[in-house]
Amino acid sequence: MASPFFTAVFLVVTGVCAALHVWKVPPALPFMQRELGMDLVQSGFLLASVQMAGMLLGLCIGLISEKIGLRRCIVTGLGILSLASLLGSLSDHSTPVLLGRMIEGCGFLMVVLPIPALIKRITVAARLSRVMGWWGCYMPAGAVLMLWAGAAWLAVGSWRTLWVVLGILTAIFMVLTFLLVPPDSQTQAKRAVQHTVALRWSSLLRTTLSSGQVWLLALAFGVYAAQWAAVVGFMPTIYNQAEIAVGTAGLLTASIAAGNVIGNLGAGRCLHAGIPPHRLLQAGYLGMIACAVLAFGLTQNLVVQFVAILVFSIVGGLIPATLFFLAVTAAPSPETTSTSVGWVQQCSSLGQFVGPPVVASVVHMLGGWQWAWVATVSFAILGLIIAWRLSRLGLPGSR
Question: Which of 158, 272, 308, 340 is the most exposed place for a label (fewest CB within 10 A)?
Answer without folding.
Answer: 158
